[in-house]
Amino acid sequence: VANGEAIEGMPINQLRRDPITGGWSIILQQQVDLSVLIAGRKARESDRPENHTACEYCSGHEAETSPEIYAIRRDGTSANSPGWEVRVLPYRSPVLQIYGDLNNRGMGMYDVLDGIGAHEVVVETPDHGVALPDLSLDRVADILFVYRERLLDLKGDARFRYIMVHKSYGEDSGPTALHAYGHIVATPITPLRVKEELINAKDYYQYKERCVFCDVVRQELGDQERVVLENEHFVAIAPFASRGPFETWILPKNHETFFEANTELKPLAEILREVLTRIRNVLNDPHYVLVVHSGPNLRAGQLRGYWKTLERDYHWHIEITPRLRGYTSFEVGSGFRINMVPPEQASRILRRNRPLLEA
Ligand SMILES: [Zn+2]
Ligand SMILES: [Zn+2]
Ligand SMILES: [Zn+2]
Residue 198 pLDDT more than 60? Predict the structure, then answer.
C-alpha cells in the first residue's frame, strides 16, 4: 500500500481529545477478541493461598497496627479493639511524613521540599477477603463517609495543597492483599495529573463560562451512548477519550467542586457498588485502580491567591481504571494512550452486564 492510501476494509482509528485533561487517546476501531483481553490477566498475588488467612487489618488484630486515627465502631467498644466497621490508620511505610516544615529550597537549578505530607490507610471492612461489592449499601456509605471525614480533617492543614483518595484492587502483595482498604495521601504540591485537570477546567470556564464537567455530563446524558449507569444524583460514563478499555468515571449530575461536600452518600454508594460489581462480573474480576479527584485544598490555595473560579470550574469525580494490559513503548514515550475498546462498546458491555468469558 502506497503512503497516504487508505487500507481497504480497515476502519480509520480516531484520535480523541479529553476536554478535561487535554490528553489525547487513540481509539482503535478494529474489533478485538475481548475474551483474550479479559482472560489474559495475570494471576494475582491475592490468588495465592497464603494470602487467604487473617492479616493485621483484620478484626482482632488491632494491636498489630499503629493506634487508629479514626473509626466507625459500635457503641460501647473502645479504640484499638474489635467492634469497628471502618478503621483509619497511619500507613506503615508512608511515602511522606506528617511532622515538620516544607523547608522549600533550591539546589542550584533544582527545587526541593522536605517530604512532608500524610499517608493514611482506610480499612474498609473488619473481614478478610471481603471486597467492596460484597458489602451492604449502608457499609459502603459508611466507607464514603469516612473518606469524607478524613478529607475535611486533613484540609485543615494549610501545608497540604492536595489530598487524594485512591485504592488499587488486586495488585498488592503480602498478607493484606486480600483485605479491602484504600489510601489517603496529602501532598504539599498538587499532583501533575490533577493540575492538568484544574488548568483545563479553568481555561474552559474562562472561554465558555461553564463547567467542563457539567457540559460533559449534559452531553453524555443527552447522547446516552457512553452512559453505563445513572441514578437521581450520579452518572457513570465511559469517557469519550477513555485511556484504556472499560475506564469508567462517576460524576455528580449537579455541579459540586468538592467530594467532601457531597451529602448524597447512599446514592453514591449505590452507583459505586454497582459499577464495581459489573466490572468484576463482566471482566473476570480484573485489577483496577480507583481515584477520587476532588478540588484542591482552598486553605492552602487562598494563601497563594490561586484558583479564583475553582468553585465554579472544577467538579469532583471518581475514576476507575481496570488494568487489563501493560503500556507500549509508544504510549510511555508519547503520552498518547491506545485503547482497543471504544468507550461506546465498553459502556454497552457494562450495561448488558453479562460475563465476557461466557459470551
Ligand atoms: Zn485481613
Ligand atoms: Zn460542574
Ligand atoms: Zn480526574
Answer: yes
The residue among 154, 150, 155, 130 whose CA lies nearest residue 140 is 130
User: What's the rounded Cα separation, in Å, for the pair 246 and 282?
Assistant: 10
Listed in sequence order, the DSSP H helices in the chain are 34-39, 137-154, 192-208, 212-223, 265-282, 298-304, 310-313, 329-334, 343-352
> How many Å lie between the centroid of ligand 3 and the Cα of residue 22?
11
Distance 258 CA to ligand 2 centre (A): 10
- Cα separation, 326 vs 47, whole angstroms: 20
Which-ligand-closest: CA of 312? 2
With beta carbons less than 8 A apart as the criterion, state whether 129 and 138 touch.
Answer: no
Nine-digit cell string for 156: 485543615
Give the tens place of pLDDT for each residue, 127-181: 999 999 999 999 999 999 999 999 999 999 988 999 999 999 987 777 888 899 9
Round to whole Å and give the CA distance between 6 and 242: 25
Tell how far the Cα of 125 is from the centroid of ligand 1, in angstroms. 9
- Kindly report whether the global pTM for this prediction surpasses the value 0.85: yes
- Mean pLDDT value of segment 29-44: 74
State the distance from the centre of ligand 3 to the C-alpha of 20, rounded, in angstroms.
8
Q: How far is CA 148 from CA 116, 154, 163, in A?
A: 22, 10, 11
pLDDT of residue 43: 56
As a whole number of angstroms, the distance between CA 255 and CA 311 comes to 9
